[in-house]
Amino acid sequence: MPDIELPDGRVVQVIALRNGPMQAQVLTLGGIVQDLRHDKVAHPLVLGCANVADYLQGGLYVGALVGRCANRIAQGRAVVDGRHCHLDRNFRGRHCLHGGRDGSAVQIWQASDVQPDQVCLSLTLPDGHMGFPGRITMNAVIALRPDALHIGITATTDAPTPCNIVHHGYFNLDGSDDIDRHRLQVPAASYLPVDANLIPLGAPQPVAGTEFDFRQPRRLAGVSIDHNFCPPDGGGMRCVATLQGASGVRMDVHSDAPGLQVYDGAHFDGLAGLAGLEGRVHGPRAGLALETQAWPDAIGRAGYPDVILRPGQTYRRATDYRFTIP
């Protein structure tokens, strides 16, 4: 497909993938999955921007690989092996979000080994980028199976650094205006309550008796959510969420990540909306993000899974979004 030039002059490759009934479009900008479809479904399964430049504005993070350290880091401060790091405060002017304003979601990744059903992408960020220590090299394989989207991520570094690289797709299985009629199941007995700035308050708390108890499938209508769930650690790939639309289309999310951020897309502009694919306009709650991740603000927090990647180690994360079509 033809390349696209951004307003700043950077060139974005558009890569078309197909495997059986599944097809996708992937951008080298941010490793974005711009479009995802199944031949038996008449609409996109993900939110995407028709104008690629919108991914740098209202469509920021939509469908992208976010990092080097996804989610929020309180006050943009981190101490890594005694090194005090002052990170970019791009969230409400106080906290670091998704690796800072110049994080991986707005970078041009390098594509290689492009095959009909998969592409390999790579990105290197220098030491000190957005305040983070260490030169980090990130690699991603975005692949289609006949019934799934697979995201496999690895990373290495030359100095200890926070690392949490996450696919930030928004899913709508019905092609509807919002996700209220979707049913969500998350087999997690605990979650992380947050403060007004969406920073975790402390240790995980039981979901029982709260609006965040999704251990049995529940409709999303009436639930405001941007929280990390703590699924049982299966030591490998396991199902961490199931989303089913009113249409009957179902998606099972399998991952080896220790956490799952569930976000209802409430921030999309309700007035102007976000210009999507095929003339769609995305307003608040147009799609649900299911981000397989390390826990937010984990640096230095006792009892949280470690997010520090060290020289000689390889960060590995795999997620499959598996679809069942009625």
Describe this structure in words.
- The protein has a nine-stranded antiparallel β-sheet with strand order 11-12-13-14-30-24-23-18-21, with no helix packed on it. Strands 17-28-25-22 form a four-stranded antiparallel β-sheet, with no helix packed on it.
- It has 326 residues and is mainly beta.
- It starts with a strand and ends with a strand.
- The chain has one domain (4-176, 269-324): Distorted Sandwich (Beta-galactosidase, Chain A, domain 5).
- 0% of the residues lie in helices and 40% in strands.
- The chain contains no helices and 30 strands.
Write the layout of secondary structure elements.
Elements: E1 4-5, E2 11-12, E3 14-19, E4 22-27, E5 33-38, E6 64-66, E7 72-73, E8 77-80, E9 83-86, E10 96-97, E11 110-115, E12 118-125, E13 136-145, E14 148-157, E15 161-162, E16 166-168, E17 170-171, E18 183-185, E19 190-191, E20 205-206, E21 218-219, E22 226-229, E23 238-244, E24 250-255, E25 259-263, E26 274-275, E27 281-282, E28 288-293, E29 308-309, E30 315-324
Antiparallel strand pairs: 1-2, 3-4, 4-5, 6-16, 7-10, 8-9, 11-12, 12-13, 13-14, 14-30, 15-29, 17-28, 18-21, 18-23, 19-20, 22-25, 23-24, 24-30, 25-28, 26-27
Beta-strand share of residues: 35-45%
Structural shape: globular
How are strands sequenced across the largest beta sheet? Answer: 11-12-13-14-30-24-23-18-21
Total DSSP E strands = 30
**Residue share in helices?**
under 10%
Radius of gyration over C-alpha positions, nearest whole angstrom: 18 Å
Number of domains: 1
Amino- and carboxy-terminal Cα gap: 31 Å
Given helix and strand content, the structural type is mainly beta
Parts with pLDDT < 50 across at least 5 consecutive residues: none
Count of individual helical segments: 0
Q: Give the integer mean of the pLDDT values.
A: 97
